[in-house]
Amino acid sequence: MKPGSYTSDEMMTIAAARMLRNGAICFVGIGLPSAAANLARLLHAPDAVLIYESGPIGAKPPVLPLSIGDGILAETADTVVSTPEIFRYWLQGGRVDVGFLGAAQLDRYANINTTVIGDYRRPKVRLPGAGGAPEISTSAKEVLIIVKQSRRSFVDKLDFITSAGFLTGGNARERAGITGGGPVAVITDLCILRPEPESRELIVSSMHPRISREQIRLETGWEIRFDAECVETAPPTADELDALRDLQARTAAAHGHAESAA
Amino acid sequence: MAHWVSLHEAIATHVHDGDFVALEGFTHLIPFAAGHEIIRQGRRNLSLVRMTPDLIYDQLIGAGCAAKLTFSWGGNPGVGSLHRFRDAVEHSWPNALAIEERSHSDLANAYVAGAANLPFTVLRGYMGSDFERVSPHIRTISCPFTGERLAATPSVRPDVAIIHAQKADRKGNVLLWGILGVQKEAVLAARHSIVTVEERVDSLDAPPNACILPSWVVDAVCLVPHGATPSYAHGYYDRDNVFYRQWDTIARDRDTFHAWTKEHILDTADFSDYLRVQSQWNTRKALR
After folding, report:
1. Which chain B residue lies closest to A173 (C-alpha atoms)?
2. Residue B284 falls inside a structural domain
3. Mean pLDDT of the region A85-108
4. Which pick of A82, A180, B48, B275 has the fewest CB atoms within 10 Å?
5. Looking at the structure, do residues B21 and B86 belong to the same domain, yes or no?
6. Which of B75, B90, B109 sits opposite A88 (nearest CB)?
7. CB-CB neighbors (< 8 A) of A176 in chain B
8. Residue A88's closest CA among B17, B104, B1?
9. Catalytic residues of A
10. Could you tell me the residue ranges of all domains in chain A?
11. CB contact (8 A) between residue A131 and residue B104
């Protein structure tokens, strides 16, 4: 790779990492969210507290975990609590600033489906299901979503709402009694989307370098809109790329292959 | 009071056709040896519950042991789908599988309620989701004091809970540490319990607040070294990530799955025999 060049996946992980502020208490999903949150910890957010649903609080893994319950999370945590405790005292207890989630599918109001494609009783594709997301998305003070953008993932209508975003838009989320603030940004390999203030519909607020509006339209299953003040995402810095690539190389060496590096 | 018995005897005594069975362990300490023994003894029509079905329930479902599954996340962690689980749900193969789907937060709460001898649990959960629409087990209630709308779901009270732990002493007091998941709650929620352990020791030498299950809440303790592999036992061995990836290929195809299950589970005498066959299989794969 030429010096200064980077992949769209690297741009996505780095853009997502930038969103996590130092000191935030962050409930982390496995895969892309975990990669972004740990990258943030290595860069500008050394005091971010990473909580994994398997029980580790304040995990500082030197390599990315392959599963949500890898031993490295327990070994590097400030404390390890049981799974009921993590959900009852720490998440539902209101101690989480940021829920960092992935998604199989999402819609224009940042509702997430990880349950089924097709009819619930006779699914075309049975997805893994809820995990911790339904309560992370409603109990965390705010939510970040990281997902690769395509017509398969960005759909006009979800077959099933596993985890609430802004539901049907406007103040539907508040009317449903949900106290957590909901998604503040969706970070993809093409752009960053944010909910529009009134409608709460996701609109493109920042496009990654070299990405065109046409590309974004092509990879979105609804008529996507762009913020009037849409900007270009700052390209990855050398420090950001070095930190991400080192982390991925360490992870690949630890797990014996490259795919797990997210 | 816990009795030290063989795993064969523990499963034969405590797990019956049609039982409601929990095999717990959140990525860590997954009781694979016990799952294999249930397959080996040919149990049928089990109602299985487990937060993360993982490979262990993919094996039980593919082998035709299960009629129902209660779960909250059914994937191969870090790899992808559970193909036997999906084949059962999508194509009723090898038999139809009823599912009761919950979230992690709910199912963890439901074990707590079960352990506390309560009929249901209350949580601030599922808000805005479609779960209530498809599941009769997820209802909404009003707080009698504030009127707040909350989710109510039935507690989990298995006939038998099975877990794996690091150590037990000669009396059968059990010690586990690391990522604890819902193992303690599962044992306390169940009518009977079986614990497989890495080691039998004279003394647990544990600090006062350690996670210990006293002998008198456990029915059977079985010495099964490596009994959680391919998951891991903190302080003993690592997760076999290579096998988790290999499973994707084994389980994707019905015939490949059957051949693997026959050679590794049905045709082996016990888990130590399985470990021997599995290590030969790995050597063969490496040479190929």
Report:
1. B128
2. no
3. 97
4. B275
5. yes
6. B109
7. 127-128
8. B104
9. 53
10. 8-256
11. yes
pLDDT, tens digit (0-9, with 9 covering 90-100), for B180-239 = 999 999 999 999 999 999 999 999 999 999 999 999 999 999 999 999 999 999 999 999
- One domain, residues B25 and B78: yes
Interchain proximity A87–B105, CB inside 8 Å: yes
Q: Give yes or no: residues B137 and B181 share one domain.
A: no
pLDDT confidence band for B27 (50 / 70 / 90): very high
What's the whole-number mean pLDDT along residues A58-73? 93
Same domain, B36 and B115: no
Round the average pLDDT of chain B to a whole number and report it: 96
Grade residue A3 by pLDDT with cuts at 50, 70 and 90: low
Query: Are B81 and A128 an interchain contact pair (Cβ–Cβ within 8 Å)?
Result: yes
SS3 of residue A30 by DSSP? coil
Spatial CA neighbour of A225 closest among A198, A203, A208: A203
CA distance A247 to chain B (A): 17
- Could you tell me the end-to-end alpha-carbon distance of chain A, in angstroms, rounded to an integer? 18
Q: What's the pTM?
A: 0.96
Position B288 in a domain: no
Tens of pLDDT along B88-124? 999 999 999 999 999 999 999 999 999 999 999 999 9
A256 touches chain B (CB under 8 A): yes
Report ipTM for this prediction: 0.94
Q: Is the per-residue pLDDT at B283 higher than 90?
A: no
Instruction: Give the domain extent around B113.
Output: 104-154
Residue of A nearest to B111 (CA): A84
Q: Do B166 and B199 touch, CB atoms closer than 8 A?
A: yes
Q: Which residue matches tokens 């909404």?
A: B140
- Chain B residues near residue A115 by CB distance under 8 angstroms: 101, 130
Residue B286 lies in a domain: no
How far is B224 from B32, CA to CA, in rounded Å?
10
Q: Is residue B128 part of a domain?
A: yes
pLDDT for the residue A261: 36
How many independent structural domains does chain B possess? 2
Largest CA distance in chain A: 51
Q: Which of residues 95-134 of A touch B (CB under 8 A)?
A: 111, 115, 120-121, 123-126, 128-134
State whether B189 and B238 are in the same domain.
yes
Amino acid residing at B11? I
CATH classification of the domain holding B174: 3.40.1080.10
Q: Which CATH architecture has domain A8-256?
A: 3-Layer(aba) Sandwich (3.40)
